[in-house]
Amino acid sequence: MAFCVLRQLAKTPIATRERIALLAPAAVSLMWKGNSFSTSLNVQCSNKNNQVNKSTIFDQARAYSKENIKKNARKYVSDSDSDSDSDAERRKKKDAYTSKFWRQKMRTLHGIFDVNNDGVISFDDFKCLANNFGDLGHLSREEMVEFIEVLRITWETNFGEVDPYNLVSVEQYLTEMYHAMTDKDLRKKVHKFLPYLFQAVDKDHSGEISIEEFKLFFKCLGLTERDAEMSFAAIDKNSDGVLSIKEFVKLGRDFFLTENPKRVSKNFWGPLVSDH
C-alpha cells in the first residue's frame, strides 16, 4: 500500500527528535464576517460537496509565536500534568503500553480520525476534523490561529511532511503512540491540543460544557448524540451536569496514559472498538 512506501516521511530528523504522538490536522481558511468567522479547508470532506479555497491563515499560524502557544496551553493544563502513583509505577515495567486494553483505546482513536474509513489516516482526514471544530464558530481568530499551529507542529513532528500521500496505518499509529507514552518529555505534550477542542464547543464561553455542548464535541468527531449521552454520564463523576476545562483536559489526557480499564476516562472518546 501507499503508506508502506511513504511512511519513511515519519523518519525525518524532526520526527525522530520529537515524536509527539498527537492528533494532527492542519491549515484552515478563516473568512471574517463582522465579529464572527467561519472556517473551511482546502479539502473535500466526506459528506460535503463543496470544494473550498485556500487562505493566508496557514501562513499566519506558522508565524505565530510558539511561546504564546505554550503559555496559553499551560494555563489550562498545569494541574493535569502529574501522574497517579499507579500510572507512574506502571510505566516502569517493561510491558507498559502493550496491554490489549490500551491498544484497543488507541485503535478507537485511529478509527475516529480515519474520516473516510479507508483504514489509514491522511492529512486530509485531519483537515476535515479541524474544519468540523472550526465551523462551530466559537473560537476567536487568535485562538484559531494558535489551534492550527499546534496541530501543524504535531503532524510534522510525528509523521513528517504535510502531504496528502503521507498515510498512517493502525499499526504505525500504535507505534508512534507507544513511543510518546514511554518518553517522559513527549508524554507531557500528549494533551496540548485538548483545550482548543474544549473552547471550540464551549459556545457560551462559560468555562464549562454541558451535555448539549458535549454533543457538539461528539458531532465533530462523527459520533452520535446517544454516544455523547452515555459517555457524558460516565465521565461526569460528580454528577453536576457540566465538565470544567480542567476535568475535560484531565479525562482526555488520562485516555492516553492509563492502562486501568476501571478508569472512567475510557469513555472520553466514545465507545471503544471491538477488542478482537
What this model shows, in words?
The structure is a single chain. The chain is mainly alpha-helical. It has 14 helices and 6 strands. A two-stranded antiparallel ribbon has the order 1-2. The relative contact order is 0.18.
Secondary structure layout:
Layout: H1 2-6, H2 13-17, E1 29-33, E2 36-40, H3 57-63, H4 66-77, H5 85-91, H6 100-113, E3 120-121, H7 123-134, H8 141-159, E4 168-169, H9 170-181, H10 184-187, H11 194-201, E5 208-210, H12 211-220, H13 225-235, E6 242-244, H14 245-257
Q: How would you sum up this structure in a few lines?
A:
The protein contains 14 helices and 6 strands.
Let me know the number of strands.
6
Helix residue percentage: 40-55%
Please describe the biggest sheet, giving its number of strands, its sense, and whether it closes into a barrel: 2 strands, antiparallel
Low-confidence stretches: 1-42, 47-56, 77-82
The whole-number mean of residue pLDDT values reads 75
How many angstroms does the end-to-end distance come to? 23 Å
| H/E element order | HHEEHHHHEHHEHHHEHHEH
Task: Please work out how many helical segments DSSP would assign.
Answer: 14
Main-sheet strand order equals: 1-2
The structure class reads: mainly alpha
Oligomer category: single chain
Q: Cα-atom Rg, whole angstroms?
A: 18 Å
Shape annotation: globular
Strand content: 5-15%
Q: Which features does this protein show?
A:
disordered N terminus, two-stranded antiparallel sheet, 7% strand, 276 residues, 6 strands, single chain, 50% helix
